[in-house]
Fold each of these.
Amino acid sequence: MTEADADRGVPIGTPITDTRVLVVDEDLGPVPFGVPGELLVGGPGLARGYLGRPDLTADRFVPDPSGTVPGARLYRTGDIIRRAPDGTLSFIGRRDGQVKIRGHRVELAEVEAALGGLPSVRAAAAGVHPGPDGHKRLAGYVVLEPGHGPLDVAALREQLRRRVPDHLVPGAWVELPALPLTANGKIDRAALPEPAGPAVTSAFTAPRTPAERAVAEVWAEVLGVERVGVDDDFHVLGGHSLAVLRITALLRERHGIELTVRSFLEHPTVAGLAGLAGAAEAGAPAAESLVWLRREGTRPPLFCVHPGGGSAHWYRPLVKYLHPDQPVAAFAWPGLQAEHGPVPSTERMAERYLAELRAEAPHGPYRLFGWCGGSGIASELAHRLTAEGEEVTFILLDPGLDNHERHELWQEFRLIESCVAKLEELAAAPPGQDTSVLRTEALALLEHLVDDVDPEVGIVLPEHGAGEVWLPSAKMWREVMELCLTYRHRPYPGRLHLIASDELADGKHEVASGQSFPDYLARWRELTGDVTLHRITGDHFGVMKPPHLGRLAEAVTGILGGGSEQGTG
């Protein structure tokens, strides 16, 4: 079963005759087809309630929220399901077994099943406890098979990552002699001990060089770990995206060490990152923009271009939904480009990315994917490769078009400029100055501009100053946005696969502001005569997250020739 299969759930059929069903959200509002929700059932066979349990009856037997049958009640099953347009229901999991960690819906039973399926694990449980930073952290409890101890967190974590997405991999691990059970033989979650701290690997090697000591010291501070060795893995220690930003900022500020998000993806250990820092000090070439998210596979690689935020991390979840034989790489914006000069043009960045692409894949066929703010660079890559006689499959998701004419995009750019100015003012403010009003204004702008913040962590600014994270990030957004606003798409001689989210098709996203979707599509056909449209449910960012991510992967796989997904001409 692929990850996309798991995301769709297990089909359980359609309701029987005279049975009424609704699929609703937490507020008992109806959800669209394909979106997970709780199953409510009713009809002539529905009981009146629980005998002698008025409290439970009131909780589970609720008035029909649709109001179509006056006085009717429906039963809250607690089952999370997804309903297809043909009425078929698919079981996803249980409401009471779900938790939300760092924005992801986590089914504890799914984690337990994956843990229990590892060869060295006899029994397993999962739970949620506060991490060192106070935010929720997934914990895995394992009873090992005889002869498989002691607990090797790094090995178990790597085995688990091959089976489930990263957000289902525990950040803390506990070895138990036996699982605590209730009188009914179920796992007694209340009796599961709180993890002592972030997991570390079984072998410890102390930092040996100044660079290793610097990296280990900052990791320990940010991740709340007492001791960090050179072979410890960032993800095993509970690292996440905001931790990357904090660590890179602190290393730059305290030690002059420059690292990127790519560094953590490709070199997740202290030794690996310190090695990059040492290479930079020795005069090694600057880090490239291309990040390999999956090198393995025999198919032509899919090369993705970062969206307007400049980060390649958005594409990482998509990889596991694609065919396992599909290599994937993504371009990330290569740090601030205009500190001492003008913002580079789209054409210039495309030339830079093309050189890196050709170095990795000297010959086609080439598969290009651009999303939103990355569509201009992706288009220029397609133009150049096509002009050189290469076979190109060109895919754009919710791409910007005629951005210079989009009033809402200019408004966003001005908000980014304002955010940069306020953060710079905060950074320059003397220690005793009252910056509370300025800080509130900056936070409000960040809340508006940031689309992928960790909901469990939120957006935080220190009481004084601008902190280490948001000012360089906002400067990068300004650069990419300025590049997008100055680019003009030109006629493309090949075929374009245009993937449109519901938000774009409904005319609610700023890349098409001021025009209808038919007009937007007609404009693309003026520039590219051969346009195939693919529609995906979900909003502009939701298509890159479950439950819609599986559908997007199906469309991309079909376009690349690995499936039957069909578009409309």
Note: Confidence is low (pLDDT under 50) at residues 1-7, 282-287, 562-566.
Amino acid sequence: MDRKIARRDFVNGLALTAAAVAMQGALPWARAAQTPTAAGYPPAAGGLTGQTDQANAVMHAVRDGMLKATTGQSTGEHFDLVVVGAGISGLAAAHEYRRLNPKARILLLDPLADVGGHAHRNEFQVGGRLLIGYGGSQSLQTPSYFSPAVNAMLHSVGIEPQKFEGYYDGKWYDRRGLGAGLYFPKKVYGHAATVRETDKAADWVNRSPLNAQAKRDLIELTDAPPDYLKGLSVQQKRARLASATYREFLLDIARVDPQLVTYFQDSTREYYGGGIDVVSALDAWANGNPGFDGMQLGDAVDRAMSPSSRLLQTDPDDYIYHFPDGNASVARALVRSLIPQTMGGHTMESLVLGRLDYGQLDVKGHPVRIRLGSTAVHVRHLGDPRTAPQVEVVYAGVGGMHSVVAGQVVLACWHRVIPYLTNELGAPQTAALRDQVKIPLVYTNVVLKNWAAFERLKLSAITSPGHFWLGADLDFPVSMGSYHFAQKTSDPVILHLRRIPGGRPGDSARDQFNTGRAELLRLSFADYERQARNLLGGALSSGGFDPARDIAAITVNRWAHGYAYEYMRPGDTYWPGGPLPIQTSRKGWGRIAIANSDAGAYAYAHSAIDQGVRAARELLGGSGPAISDFPGPPQRKLKFFGS
């Protein structure tokens, strides 16, 4: 287990020039600026990537009062639009702005080494074979619920979601008899066990190391739960479940053994960010957690359900709309449309194996330019915001502090950053912007030389309750064009590990996300690597897995500020009736508009697109296909309980 695994080293990046350091003082952020040329080819960087210390350093210095930069050396550049943030929402804003104003000159600024935000691509070479993985934003979920604006934009950049029905091999796991399993770590349960799940809990629970009472309770919860709220009407039951967390449901309503709280604690994190101590029992029901079948709750969506629960309760689509690099291909398609010199081709297939030319992102003379390694630190109207003709944007980049002038600006960055960028906002909007606390997450891709251990154990995925990692899944079986997913057991494959760190049970969801973020930033690549080896070495040992022999590479994608926060009961009592914080936070002023998925309070790529489109239209007064501007699936497509 402790033998060294060969891997690509993490690139620490380049320091700013001595002149730049002298200008601001010898500050910690002085290592932050790094151009894509210096970093090499970002998708193949390996090691610890994503929101690295160097990418975060400038804004952390601003936050901590160590950097007060309100002016910079003018570049002499003037743009019609500057977009702060080159993630999917910022790219969508630029795309919509160009649709409405085809001659517009646009600059996008982003502190990361790659374009797309956390729609991030990982590439690996194993035995002469290219493997592509997703390092962040995963899939285009539920195209049936996309707004007309999202559908129009995807079509305009060559993405046709229905084609995934041919790209995704829905029978890949079934043909091989692979299914889901559970790994119980010894440190949590007394002794370790890997158990293959089946439809009936009674068929597998007794092979787990749970205590005797917890086994009986889990079998009852899953296979034959009674009506734990007998005597209440369906409306009263739903209201009770909305006001209680799933943890409270287990302990106070179902009265199960406390060990099941440990077992289920992280079961809600992947959709809601928080554990069962902050997620309502109503949302846990939508998530598929057990204990509710005996209550006869019906199928209709409850208005008190969170946006993602509304989706889970009604989702009409299979979860197959996935590029090999996740939504990085959506970002790449938008870049290709905005700057055609970056990549050839026009099809979805050409996105997969096409190599983005990073040298073409920021070229003088191109109508659209993307400047990576550049962190906006100050934004101000050049005059009274009500009448000013221009906006100045100051940013930290290679060579120090710079400034550009724009006719208009879209802030497509995290909402909590915006109050640090400008002093033009009032207290109510500042408070609303700070309400959006991003969910921290770590997506780790572990490349296996083969998947023989999974074949022997007949597993496709492992959930690990109580472990550092939430679990590990074989990658999506997607083949596009000349890129093919593994077919033989001896083929290399990517394994996807997830961690969403939290805080102390009992703290609010937002406080837990901040605690989790601190942990995420504290850990090194070696820490994540060690935990990955621990999980796989333990869970797959009975299948003959040897981490040192069977792991070819590891890339840790760290997103301290990951998914947008979604409103949810019981903590957010204003949901869904409002007023919602986003209704205040996303209001533009003067020549500045606000985008990002934070503006939709909905952590999905199509929400990011909707918000980018809205921001561009606000600035230009344009119109087009309708957007979705309320968190969750389109309300007109939902049948609500009691209506």
Note: Residues 1-39 have pLDDT under 50 and may be disordered.
Amino acid sequence: MTTEPTTTTQAPLRHPSAFEPITFILIILLSVVGALIGLHLITTLGISANTSVIGALVAMIIGRIGILGLSKFRDINRQNLAQSAISSATFAAANALLMPIGISWAFGRPDLVWPMLAGVTAGLMIDAWVLYRTFGSRFLPATAPWPPGVAAAETIKAGDQGGRRAAVLTGGGVVGAVMSWFGLSASAAGVAFIGNVVALLMLGIGLMVNQYYKLVPALKDVSLSGQYIPHGLMVGAGLVALGQAVWIFLNRPSRRKATPVDDGEDATDPALAPTRGRQELASGLGGGFVVFIVGALALGVITGLMAEMSIWQLIGWALFAAFAAFVHEIIVGLAAMHSGWFPAFAVTLIFLVLGLVAGLPDVPLVVLVGYCAATGPAFADMGYDLKAGWILRRVHSRHPGYRAYEMSGRRQQYYAAILGFAVALAAVMLLWQPMFTDGRVPPVSKVFADTITAGLTNPNAVTNLMLWAIPGAIIQLIGGSSRQMGIMLATGLLLTQPNACWLIFGALIIRLVIRHLKGAKAEEDLALVGAGLIAGDAIASLGQIFKPR
């Protein structure tokens, strides 16, 4: 997306703090709303929603009130802190906390819920820390699509600037909301206007195959997921993606651009340069893995696994659990970076199957799956939020103090997310027992618990995982770290989004035609339309709360 970086003043840049009293209060209030929305959606519909745009809109409205200092929320950076907090609370409460502890309850071990809550909270915090430490590197660049982040930023900018931008965004939002209400994934079309063309093409191919493969007579009775074919592709692509991350921080940047830049971008813009070097990337990923090991060991002890395992078995279990959590967050994060979707359920299922194959006892497997499932969503969501902040702060990229200002803004967003996590944890601590007792357990939690109880029913699962990992790895290698072709193809095969493939293909064709006719400058308008579609889809998805069950 093209943004004209300008600097209207050379005065020192100061980013507002998440702990300013009035900002702090709004962050807490929005986080409560976000956590309750997440808990309701995950237990009734089995989904969660990105509430970033809701937080931004609330902050905009409050900023129009001229009393009690509320006019401070006219500042787009404070609006960014508000949207960061509410989305963090939503995903933390639903995906990272309630769903993992629901596995213990559904498995018939309510005594494990409290220790599991402690463990998954640690996983959540590690997850967010790793993303914060690695965002802006060549592996997770700020210049990557992160589509929901673009949507949030463009919503804030349109509200601030008004005019044509607001009209285009609003039009896209209305179309997105209408499409969503009629069951069409407007986000699919939206990301195709924003993301990497090749990556989105692979996602569309995966979605198309998943939707239509049964039309082939020979495949009529075949289940791709039941044969673990998409999971195998994801295993191969995921392992290569980890290798690509290692390659990035073991090798010096080439003389070519360190991060991908769209044709319409000004390559001299300081905002396009990586803000995390090789050493920071290495310490972020390596340190995160070490902390995941410590967290897994602590979780094993407090859940009583020592009663079922020897000390060496516990250490082996902790290493496997840490590896699963780490790989899970990386795969989910890469998929989210390019598509705005993350296949968290499917990737967790891979490690559940591997645990069954390894012969792990039921309780250690329940704890492992819960720990693994807690990572990924917060990683992806924080990437969206930091992308939004990067877009908003980029207007000052020519200022001599820009880099410090950018890093300060990210730090304040991180603090806002932590506050959202704290509110989410409090909400889950207060509500999990009455919700579970009332039968409101996340459907995904039941699926994991039932799978562990049933055991491995497909004897060819491991063979298929290993066999299909080969083409997954090859495709990922061909695409490289900037396109993530293997990850995106596997993501499409794992998602069930009726007709989303045609929306992606149609949007890509429109994008390419318009670029051919109007040049790279058209990317900004296309990204604005895409942001509107995603924002409208996100708002309409919350309307599902009011649909009859």
Note: The CA atoms of residues 356 and 399 lie 55 Å apart.
Amino acid sequence: MQQSSTPEEIRVDATHPEQKVANTEVLQFQQVIADLWLERSLNELQNQINQCLARAYHTQQSLQELEAEVFQALIQQLSVSLKTDKVAIAFLQGWSPLAMSDPTLDCVLRPELNYEVRYSALSTSAASTEKSPAWQLQQIISHQELQALQNQNPKAAWALQDDCKVVGWLIIATCALPKSATGERLKFQLQPQFIERSLNVTMHAITQLQHLQALTLKCQQLEVQNCDLLRTNKLKSEFLANTSHEIRTPLSSILGFTHLLKAQGYNPENHRHQEYLNIILTSGQHLLALLNDILDLSKIEANQLEINKETVNIPEVCRSAISLVKEKASDKHLQLQLDIDANATALVADSLRLKQMLFNLLSNALKFTNKGAVGLQVKQKGVFVHFTVWDTGTGIAKEKQPQLFQPYVQISNVVAGRQEGTGLGLALTQKLAQLHGGWVEVQSKVNRGSQFTIVLPLTTAATSKTKVLSQRSSVTTDIRLSLNSQAAAPKTVMVMLVEDNFHNAKLMTTYLRKLGYQVTWVNSAAQMWEELPKAKPAVILMDVHLPDVDGLTLVQQLQANAEYRHIPVIVQTAMAMKGDRETCLAAGAIDYISKPIDLQALANMVSKYSDLDH
């Protein structure tokens, strides 16, 4: 029995390994097919996404449109590969990954959040008859529903993550595990891997789009900055050209008429020579006014200009401003009108700066008016005073009005002919008004005239600090230092002038000697120390910039010397920026006067401080 049974058992065992090898080979072949399905599906998705990214770099298509194409490619590929139309992507209502790329956005999910289906493989017609779970466009899904889909088996929801943020959800209604067809079962087992890798590819593409969006925004900002820089450069070039013209024109008058006086020999009785001198003086004043405007605007932009607020007599300031332009109005045969509300009597402001603002507006109105009238109207409205300068000129087109208060900008005008000035007047006026807590308004119609209104508050806060301005001489705006009237100087008063510039020294020496002072001029620190014991001056006029020792250092040395510390020292310099006066006084000077020297102010100052020694 045992011998008969053994061959049968041997025959059975001999056939079983062959069957087993065959089954293994089939299974391996089917596994390869499943793996190829996985890689082919992923490659197809990657190719579609790459095409979207290529368009992002080479076309003008918006990033939002490309984002939609990337997600639509994901939906389409998953639908085809998984053989289901129940594939959808939902985002927070009103948001998308590009919109949520802000790193400051809260990345913590909250149970009360709702999501909206933004992309779906389900067609509209199919959606209307579909009974099994599906997701239609614009369908709202709660956070709890999505979490339930994520936790079920098989998994039906995957979070779309960008860094720490969940930006959306992928939802797929997968089929149950096939009971037959080994190849389909193998593909089913690869589905989670396929979905995860598809999500990784998609979110990597979205990240690239976010980086591109950031680069695009940066490029746009750089383009705006470049345009601003180009515009600024153009404006400054135009400003330099206009400034060059404005400087050269009065210089030509100064040099030309000075040459005529020198060639003809100056005769005080010759009326023509007096006219030449007036032209030279006016041209010099124009140059000084130009320089002051440039310095004022620079100080304001550097936050260095301070105003001296005090109670201002409105009618007095307005009449003074009108008087400054009366001659120009007369030359153009224009009426000049002044209308002041009886209630507008006083306000708290810097009177010199207010006069400067009014003068700028009145000058502009006269420049752009050929016939009719120019006027200044003042009204008190509540807690503000309105200073309105109006004209009957050509007016300004509405599209050009925003350019009016930009520095260095000049608007072409037929009446004005060539563009006089530097384009700083209105910009300076607006900034001065803002320093007072006010503003400037403009109303204008072409061929109907213009109205520029300076609106200033009646009073300022009690915490406002009163500042003292550096002395400034501008005859064009009639801004001068108020001192006591000039007094005759006794001939025994000795003044020492420490000045290295020959022409400036000649001017001040000649002027002071005509007033009766004795003047000793030295051009260096060494000469000053040599002459001091012999001259014994009552006052020292000290220039800051000297060839051997700084003028302020000399002042300190004089203060440290017991023999000379009692002598008043007046510092005179071309410095005119914020803090210059305080620097000079801190060094020991008794007072400060800026160049160009106002001779009247100089005489009053010397008279005032020379009396201290007598």
Note: The CA atoms of residues 348 and 459 lie 5 Å apart.
